[in-house]
Design brief:
Elements lengths: L10 H4 L7 H28 L2 H9 L2 H34 L5 H8 L1 H4 L2 H12 L6 H4 L10 H27 L2 H8 L4 H29 L3 H7 L9 H9 L5 H36 L1
Helix pairs in contact: 2-14, 3-14, 4-9, 4-11, 7-9, 7-12, 9-11, 9-12, 10-11, 11-14, 13-14
Subcellular location: Cell membrane
Main location: membrane
Subunit structure: The complex is composed of two ATP-binding proteins (CysA), two transmembrane proteins (CysT and CysW) and a solute-binding protein (CysP).
Length: 288
């Protein structure tokens, strides 16, 4: 061995954790999670629980509350489905093809993340209004794209599309083409290879993208109020009704109950979708 040969790394020097140990790191992480996320949510639930059964029944029996919840959930569900379909298609194009302007298209996907929701709402309302670029094209056919649930869905698709794209895109990049090409070389058609090879691998990511787009659309406020018209019993969404109740005399209790109800229903939907995603992932690993 020469004089300048480097010593072999020992177990002590081979790997040094850049962050503190599990106990300290877990403690810091849970503390920040509790202060930023869990504490406000727990305070909201405790405050709503203190209103009693009568307060809850009085709030949820309000026709305006029931209508706003129906509009919010229906529009968020429809928008999440549409955003998932087209988001998966955009992710497929970005991963599988090379074409001029691909990097620009990839950057534009993230635009709704950075754009203020109020700006998005004003822009969408200007485009889809009866005098807008798109609105005036469909207006002669009796199609109205604003001041109805169609406008809400359009706004929520705009907001939810990046979640679907960015959830599916890395899975497609990691999947590659080898399994698909192997299935085709064994005699499977492209459609069969897509259905039997690619889609099972993408299904957990698709469910995650749907859940993120749905949850984001359920609580969206800024981009919706400009295009929905906010007509009571027709296009009034739950977040807007919460804001209205806050500025009414003795309306804070109703706002708290409605916010808690929206939180619990959103959380239940996310838990169910994540459980289904984990189930599909486990099934894919077992089949593999």
């Amino acid at each position: 061995m020469s004089e300048h040969a480097l010593p072999l790394p020992t177990s002590a020097t081979r790997w040094r954790r850049p962050l503190p140990g599990l106990g300290l790191g877990l403690g810091i992480g849970m503390t920040w999670l509790g202060l930023i996320v869990l504490l406000p949510l727990a305070a909201l639930i405790l405050r709503s629980g203190g209103l009693g059964v009568a307060g809850w029944l009085r709030t949820i029996s309000d026709p305006l509350v029931l209508s706003s919840l129906r509009v919010s959930f229906l529009s968020a569900f429809i928008a999440a489905v549409i955003a998932l379909v087209f988001g998966a298609l955009i992710a497929w194009v970005l991963v599988r093809y090379r074409f001029p302007g691909r990097r620009l298209m990839d950057a534009l996907v993230d635009l709704p993340f950075a754009l203020p929701t109020a700006v998005a709402g004003i822009t969408l309302a200007a485009i889809y209004d009866e005098t807008g670029w798109i609105g005036q094209l469909v207006q002669p056919f009796g199609i109205k794209l604003v001041n109805n649930i169609t406008g809400i869905v359009i706004a929520l698709i705009f907001i939810g599309l990046p979640f679907a794209v960015r959830t599916v895109q890395p899975v497609l990049e990691a999947l590659g083409r080898e399994q698909e090409e192997a299935a085709i070389s064994l005699g499977a058609s492209r459609l069969t290879a897509l259905r039997r090879v690619v889609l099972p691998e993408l299904l957990p990511a698709l469910l995650t993208g749907f859940s993120l787009a749905f949850a984001r659309g359920l609580g969206e406020f800024g981009s919706v109020i400009f295009i929905a018209g906010n007509l009571p019993m027709k296009t009034q969404i739950a977040p807007l009704l919460i804001t209205i109740r806050l500025f009414e005399d003795n309306g804070i209790n109703a706002a708290i109950v409605l916010a808690t109800l929206l939180l619990l229903m959103s959380f239940a939907c996310l838990v169910a979708i994540n459980a289904a995603s984990a189930l599909f992932s486990h099934g894919n690993r077992r089949d593999g």
